[in-house]
Amino acid sequence: MVHPSLKIYDVPHMPGSTLLLALTGWMDGGLVSTGTVKHVMQDRELVKVAEIAMGGYYIDNFPGSMEISALFRPHTKYEAGLVTSFDMGANEFYADPASSMAFFLGREPNMNWIGFADCIFAVVKKLGCKRIIFMGSFGGTVPHTREPRLFGAVSAKKLLPLLKQHGLRPSDYEGPGSFASYLLVRAPKHKVEMISIAAEIPGYLQGLNPVSIETITRRLAHMLSLPVDISQLRDASNAWELQVSDVVAKDEEMAKTVRKFEEHYDNELIGLPPPADDEENETSEHGEDEDER
User: Fold this and answer.
1) What confidence tens digit (pLDDT) does each residue in 97-110 have?
2) Where exactly are the structural domains of the chain?
3) Distance CA 3, CA 119 (A)
């Protein structure tokens, strides 16, 4: 039986295919989750295969200050007294049969994770997907001048060797859970493999992070033997790093922090421990601020 909030169109059957999953919200700092999947989707012959209705999964308003409430309210735009845009968001599935790839772009649900997951696994089954790969991010101590560290988690013990094979550090974390973590727990019951990849992004920055998007995109291309043009991302990454470095250079305290992070990053690469009195932030799959929601 099809879930009432799931609308299914013409679904191609693609046995052994992969679904790339992107979610705004908790683990989309730097737009790494959505930015990566959108880039991989470019220049493909895509067909829309399904969508999950927005109703019943989200809080549209939250009581409290305007700053808190603004995190939940839909984005709207007026021009010359006329409403020209009212964005409730969307949860959409696409497929590229030629490459046996499927894609999901959506908002992490605030409520009814069970029902939302049911919809995702229902589409995965109809497509014939063998695996789901989620990409996300968390704020940490990696400096913007270095390549982001990539962490991974899998849905079953037998998949753990994939982390080492693809250069992903095993995640060690305890705390508030993401919807992606819930999918990892559910995946074995649906006989689907799932891998979660999280890029550590600089915790001192906000906004788009093209370096992290490029890093995960390159890793995905290698994992899936997937031809992906990253020249556009490379150009954006170079421009972004120069811009951020220019801003940091004008802030003495920020520059000092970045130099410390660079030293720790480089020491780790050659096997030197950090200073005993150092108080670095713990890495977490959920390190983003609330305003990333």
Assistant:
1) 999 999 999 999 99
2) 6-54+89-229
3) 6
Query: Buried b vs exposed e over 129-163: b needs ≥16 C-beta within 10 Å?
Result: bbbbbbbbbbbbbbbbbbebbbbbbbbeeebeeeb
**What's the pTM value of the predicted model, to 2 decimals?**
0.88
Handedness of CA 58, 60, 65, 67 (dihedral sign): positive
Please name every residue paired with 140 in a beta bridge, in sequence order, or none if there are none.
202
pLDDT reading at 292 higher than 70: no
Q: Looking at domain 6-54+89-229, which of 3.40.50.10900, 3.30.200.20, 3.40.50.720, 2.60.40.10 is its CATH number?
A: 3.40.50.10900
Torsion of Cα atoms, 30 then 32 then 38 then 43, to 10°: 100
pLDDT in tens, 17-66: 999 999 998 899 999 999 999 999 999 999 999 999 999 999 988 888 88
Distance CA 11, CA 17 (A): 13
DSSP string, 170-197: EP---SSPPHHHHHHHHGGGGT-EEEEE
Burial bucket for residue 207 (CB in 10 Å: 0-12, 13-18, 19+): exposed
- Ordered alpha helix ranges (H), the chain: 32-41, 66-69, 113-127, 161-165, 179-186, 210-224, 231-249, 252-269
Q: Which tokens go with 67?
A: 């700053």
Rounded mean pLDDT, 84-90: 92
